[in-house]
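Here is one chain, start to finish.
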Amino acid sequence: MIFEFEERKFDTAEMRDVSLFGAFPCGGTVRFLLKVKKEYRPLSAEMIIHADGWNTGRTVLHNISFEKYSDEYSSVEFAKEISFSELLKQCGLAEDGLFYYHYRVQTENGEISLGGEAPTELIRIENFIGERQLLIHTDDYRTSSGFSGGIVYHVFVDRFRSSGKCPVKEDAVLDPDWENGIPQYGEYPGAEFPNNVFFGGDLYGVIEKLDYIASLGTKTIYLSPVFDAFSNHKYDTGDYLTVDSMFGGDEALTELCSKAKARGINIILDGVFNHTGSDSVYFNKEGRYDSIGAYQSKESPYYGWYNFTEYPDEYESWWGVKILPRVSKNGEFQSFICGTVMDKWMNAGVSGWRLDVADELSDDFLNCIRKNVKSRNFDAVIIGEVWEDATDKVAYDRRRSYLRGGQLDSVMNYPLRGAIISYIKNGNCAELRKYTEGTYRRYPKQSSDNLLNFLGTHDTERILTHLGGESCGDHTNEELSTMRMTADEKQAAIGMLKLAYGIIGGLPGVPCVFYGDEVGMEGYRDPFCRRPFPWHDMNSDLLEYYRRIGNIRKKHSVFSDGLFRIISLTDQHFVYIRYPEREEGEKIIVAASRKGDLSLRLPRHTTDSGTGRFVSRTGIVRENEVRYFSCPAWTSVTASSLGL
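Its structure:
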């Protein structure tokens, strides 16, 4: 496609096109090429670039003049090699930084400014609004290579599977109605309630179902918190050094890690390090533990972990939730987590961490976590709970540096979830384009490869309910606890869910399935999205579809680290391609039809990735269907070649 204004980029050391990217190592040198159509009569061009000034309150503009490179055919081209180490030095930075830039072009008819967030197409901008982003990360920034490919299966332990082996604690209430029980809930969202009603799921139950989990194409199991705690959700940690006895204790986690690894599956834990429970070894407000907690005495070894405003009953807590006292920026606590806690569980076989509320962990803490985790297992993954774009995220009035090499491998991809839902339900193409090609341009490629892509979590409505159910609206929790879709509504929602999962299944990053989504579980907001897994009422058709997509991912290595390009995106269909960075090996065309049937003119020797069989030159994708087509490396795939 020929644009009026275009930016291309070339890595001079590796002699390759890197135009899809806007994040590079600090030691790199990239030749920027600016193309302007001749009809604008361009005379000269320059890049106006500045380091992000959010944290310093200071913005200094740097003008980089471009040289005329070519004046042929339909465009005039200007070029400049930029050394990122020199750029960092010029801006007073060491080995990483966030930059914004735009182009200023002098023409015979005046000056124009160019920017925008598309990978290569530039648009006119004014007053710096719409500048392009450039992220420079450390040279040694490496992320997990084992996490990408396959899928992640997210298990909320109390609700997945009960082995019947683990006794109920004295302060817990067991609901024996696994098939039809309703999770305990408050009168309204945010209302306090005990959260001490359990259904009895445990880690031995997860072990019993490892073959089932593996059948989905799973490469990683992400467990909700497992450490000793009062609640069923375990985000109120009682003891970081003990797995809860109702989940099977330390032995169950060690056995799970071992038996999962034998099936090629890694285990990652939910690290809740911003706050503890008030009912814990460390705070001990209820006096249940044989320790002197911070609530009990200022002489407690844990007193310095917390911020008390009026001792002992007024203290800083997570979003004002009194059972979750927030841990202050405390070096002793950080050393305990980064050393004692992580050492123990990684020695037990854990292969990574999902960091709860990563925005609320300090840079020092995140740096400490990464240093320790990677020193023990360089391929262990560190995923942060970040709900927005992680490259320019501002949290507590500070610009964060999650993806510049010293902190996270990647993050939870909440923006993509919203974009896919908006596309499936409303045909919103602009948002889907922004949060696919736009995100992959802004993020370091190694971070994009490790993005946790999902349609639902323990914090959201069940994806099936979100797609086909009645809106929560003004319904009370009591009403929502029993609301269900009609049979027709559910069938329509399943069709939309297949489309959504088929799309997300091929995108850069790793699809994450919240337990039960693959068999058609319903449920409104927390806690109704956390019902027990319906082992006796599974939608077998949906399950087989999830298995097919998951195993296609495992079969083709291009899904682990291949490049991504949109071929065609309309309110009726979405077609994109995954292909090897070095142009060696097969290419996978992913074609999704939202409305009507889609006809594709496929390259010769194309196979259906699901069956492995050759397909005819004309491929048909039915409404609400996604198909994966594998074609040889030498084929050229464009919208026109596919007949789009």
